[in-house]
Amino acid sequence: MKRLMFFWLLMLWLTGLTIPLTAQSEYRVENQKGYFKLPFQLINDLVIVPVTVNGVELSFLLDTGVNATLIFAIDGEIPDVKNTSRIFLRGLGAGEPVMALKAINNKVTLGDAVSEAETLYIVEEELIGLSNRLGIELNGILGYDFFRDFIVNFNYRRKFIKVYAPEIYNYKKCRRCVDIPLIFDENKPYLEAKVEMEDQEHNMLFLLDSGSGDAVWIFTDEERGITVPHPSFEDFLGYSISGSVYGKRSRISSLSLGDLKLKEVTASFPDSLYVKDVSLYDNRNGSIGSQIMKRFHYTLDYPGKNLRLKPNLDFRKSFEYDMSGVVVQHTGQRIVRHYEAPPPFFDVEEIQSDGEEVSEITYQLKFSLAPQYQIAEIRPGSPVEKAGLQIGDIILEINGKPAHKYSLDKISSLFTSRDGRLIKLIVERELKEMKFTFMLKRIL
């Protein structure tokens, strides 16, 4: 697989987040057909959809790993919600529980799906930092409250979902499809899969977590012989609402979902410190994330407790870790200058010079705001560290192209593109421009 997000997106930041369950209003499809199609943005393999809350248009992450609807207070600004009260939440990570606001009786709309009295949980966006790490303003996360009322088809290749009212949906015959039963606990979906590693097979139970940017997370269990395969390396795994999560990264020989087998899958093994205080389903062995799910056209059927998988063209692509060893984040905007040429049809000023006519073309110097990208983490021993780059460096150019002309998604693709690829960076450090060169290196 040539495309993989940065390490900060290979995370389980909200998978361990369990919110007290409350009665919710139902979503319904407000059209005569009973279904609708909705395009989405695919950013670092995460599905971002437009959502309207109380008439305000926002952007939300669709995430099967959360059991409620979260909305972010950005820069201390509380969104326009109704009837709030305080609660405390805990996720993965070693930090303390964080305060949130619970808001009831809010109108939420996604495409033609509407809920008139939705309960929302408001947390500070900077606690999670998704906007900086995705390069877009993300306003919230939509999970179980939406999925429970519909059957949803995901098409990652063409970037759309189809949402159906359960009473009108009929499964079609499909020879290449596999149906996987879903098991629910605290409104989160779990599924069984077979894992092969270190020449042993294990039947495991995984949380289905479309909001995790990793392929698979596995919790070690020495009594069952579930340990970290060799070779492996220590790494920062991601962010939780309760703090940073650390552990090891390795590969498993295969992951089988029914008759569908994925080989040489990248796998993360969080340290037990970060999961011991979190309420997890007793038999759960880990989580399956978007690096797995993007390889299928899949039908998510909460009402029928079923997941139907059909391999797409990405199914056999290799799994890869980032080959640079750098974590890049969006840190606001910077002023950039550029020269603007005149339009193709314009009057040229004629100037006499020593008896000859000279045509003068005037270019305008313009200034504009553009995204700023900064190095947030560096993996010890990585190509980036060996080249001399440092945390805090602001990236100005990548391979001769201004950095602001890239999205974070494109930078991620470049840094995971090919073993041995030459990367040239110009960065700003303490107001000085510096040049660096390194080669991408496959880590496992």
Automatic annotation (TrEMBL):
Family annotation (InterPro entries): PDZ, PDZ_6, PDZ_sf, Peptidase_A2_cat, Peptidase_aspartic_dom_sf
What keywords are annotated for this sequence in UniProt? Hydrolase
Domain PDZ, which positions?
347-430
Q: Which PROSITE patterns match?
A: ASP_PROT_RETROV, PDZ
Q: Name one Pfam family in it.
A: PDZ_6
Q: Name one GO molecular function term.
A: aspartic-type endopeptidase activity
What protein name applies here?
Answer: PDZ domain-containing protein
Recorded source organism is Salegentibacter flavus
